[in-house]
Amino acid sequence: MFSSIYDLCFPLVDSNNNYLGASFKWDKKFYITCKHVVNASQDIRVVKDPEKNSKSYAISNIRLSKKYDLCLFEVNNTEKLDSLMQLPHSEDTLSLMTDVVLLGFTSSIRGIIEPRCIKSYIHRAMGQASDWQVKNYGLKSINEILIQIPKGFSGCPVISHDGKKLLGMGLGTNASENNSYTTVKEKTGANSIRALETVETKEITYYGMIHSVGDISEIVNSINID
């Protein structure tokens, strides 16, 4: 059992140590994150544990999925990551009401990387994503959690509530318009003339999107790996 978020994942930064997203160990060779995280900078680096040591290490052998929001890479000086745990991959498909835990990081106003843990559950599991969702979100399947994924959690591991299995990877947030309604309000204009004004209000709900382990495995298999 892990005792720290840094036992399972690590932050990715650019050459100026600006925090970009999270990553974790996928197999014996590769680490994994979101493609949009790696595309954010031409110089991506790993910080194993910024609370203890701010030294960073370059990544290499970057493999991007052409269709989905996923990226594999290796890390130079891998001995520095020898202590990183790799959880067994869940063989179960994500289903409604499955409890999940997201392990990731946020960056404070002062630029300090802060580890965080979020608990939620799967509230929508709809199978194959539409062409529009693939193009705009890089999804393979629809797996949503009932919470907005914070900025900086892209590429974070999604694990079982008991911390024993890897369930997937956090991608980002999807916005859904639930209701749109109008109200009529009275306003006072020039010369104190009162008039009625129609105001349209939209209710927006935000949901977190994740790749399941099954989706990741299929995407990884589609990437040309030596």
Descriptive report:
The protein has one domain (5-176, 206-222): Thrombin, subunit H (Beta Barrel). The chain is 9% helix and 50% strand. It is built from three helices and twelve strands. The chain has helices spanning 35-38, 131-137, 213-222, and strands at residues 9-13, 19-25, 31-33, 45-49, 53-64, 71-75, 99-107, 113-128, 141-145, 157-160, 166-188, 194-212. The longest helix has 10 residues, at 213-222. It is globular and about 75 Å long.
Defining traits:
9% helix; Thrombin, subunit H; 12 strands; six-stranded antiparallel beta barrel; globular; six-stranded antiparallel β-barrel; mainly beta; 50% strand; 226 residues
Kindly provide the radius of gyration, computed on alpha-carbon positions and rounded to a whole number of angstroms: 21 Å
Number of helices: 3
Strand content: over 45%
Could you tell me the mean pLDDT?
Answer: 85
Helix content: under 10%
Could you tell me how far the N terminus lies from the C terminus, measured between alpha carbons in angstroms? 32 Å
Number of domains: 1
| Helix and strand element order | EEEHEEEEEHEEEEH
CATH architecture: Beta Barrel
Derived structural class: mainly beta
Enumerate the strands of the largest sheet in spatial order, edge to edge or round the barrel. 1-2-3-6-5-4
Query: Per CATH, what is the topology?
Result: Thrombin, subunit H
- Shape descriptor reads globular
The strand count comes to 12
CATH class identity: Mainly Beta
Largest sheet: 6 strands, antiparallel, barrel
Low-confidence stretches: none
